[in-house]
Design goal:
With about 300 residues, the chain is of the alpha/beta class. About 35% of the residues lie in helices and about 15% in strands. It is globular.
Length: about 300
């Protein structure tokens, strides 16, 4: 049994193709294959577009140098949108605010130098979860200045390990910076808080007002990704996330956005559940991503 398709009154949704970055293609369908994994001479973009996708979400660091020209040529010749991913100070845990801002600036400079149309937006893994509030204020104040300088909309992701890893940290940051834009990946907060955020209703309203982009993954109370959101045993978690996304669609429509962007960002192992010993996936990852993209665009 699978969940029924849904219909929501929202602005036009642009489905974004997630690009996996792991090196073992045995776990990946070509549907979500990264350009740094051996692929056909021409990626199957016709099939991707037929499935409803209109853009890629990918970090340039995850595109092999030999494939950068292919990537940018695809964007130009086949009219693919692009959401660029950045990771401030890579994945180090020792960097200070200055290091993270310098890293963000360098990555924005690289994006500004890319050929072809500019990215639709920049999805940023920003800062560190261990920072104090003054450190977060210094970083996000500097990030807003960089956003104005480069003219690229930046959406800071609610992701574990990063500055917005918890709703408590996010509440303080959003109160200080009401123009800061977010990528709402609320699966991380569900995992961190071990609950379906029942006691965060006012904050979820604020998140909806400041969300630019959505990562439509479903988390659960003990992890960031359910094994298969189509399975009835995860219907409560799916329903909770969809209520939050509906709130975001309504807020985006109210502030005049013509298009919403959504990436069905279910990830490969170790996000994707696997069988012990064999590591065989418990669900078809591409099918799950396609199902979620179709469901939220219907």
């Amino acid at each position: 049994m699978t969940q029924k398709p849904r219909r929501t009154a929202k602005v036009q949704t642009l489905s974004v193709l997630p690009f996996a970055t792991f090196s073992d293609p045995s776990y990946l369908c070509v549907k979500i294959r990264s350009f740094n994994i051996p692929a056909p001479p021409h990626p199957p973009t016709t099939a991707w577009r037929a499935a409803g996708y209109r853009a890629f979400e990918v970090c340039l660091d995850h595109v092999a140098m030999r494939d950068l020209a292919v990537f940018h040529d695809l964007r130009r010749t086949e009219d693919w949108g692009w959401i660029a991913g950045v990771y401030t100070d890579a994945f180090r845990t020792t960097g200070n605010v200055a290091a993270h801002l310098a890293s963000l600036r360098a990555q924005l400079e690289a994006l500004a130098a890319c050929p072809g149309p500019a990215p639709l937006l920049v999805n940023s893994h920003s800062g560190l979860d261990r920072w104090s509030l003054p450190e977060m204020e210094d970083f996000f104040g500097g990030a807003l200045e960089l956003e104005r300088l480069f003219g690229l909309p930046i959406a800071h992701e609610t992701h574990r390990r990063r500055a917005l890893a918890t709703p408590w940290a996010a509440a303080a940051v959003l109160a200080r910076f009401p123009t800061l834009q977010l990528t709402a990946d609320l699966s991380h907060w569900v995992c961190v808080c071990e609950r379906l955020l029942e006691d965060f209703e006012p904050l979820l309203d604020q998140v909806a007002r400041q969300t630019l982009h959505v990562h439509a993954r479903v988390g659960h109370e003990h992890g960031p990704q359910v094994p298969d959101p189509r399975a009835p045993e995860w219907s409560a978690q799916l329903a909770a996330h969809e209520r939050w996304w509906d709130r975001i669609w309504s807020a985006q429509r109210a502030r005049g956005l013509a298009v919403s962007t959504l990436t069905p960002e279910f990830g490969p192992p170790n996000y994707l559940w696997t069988q012990p010993h064999t590591r065989a996936p418990l669900a078809d990852l591409a099918a799950v991503c396609d199902w979620m993209a179709t469901r939220q665009s219907t």
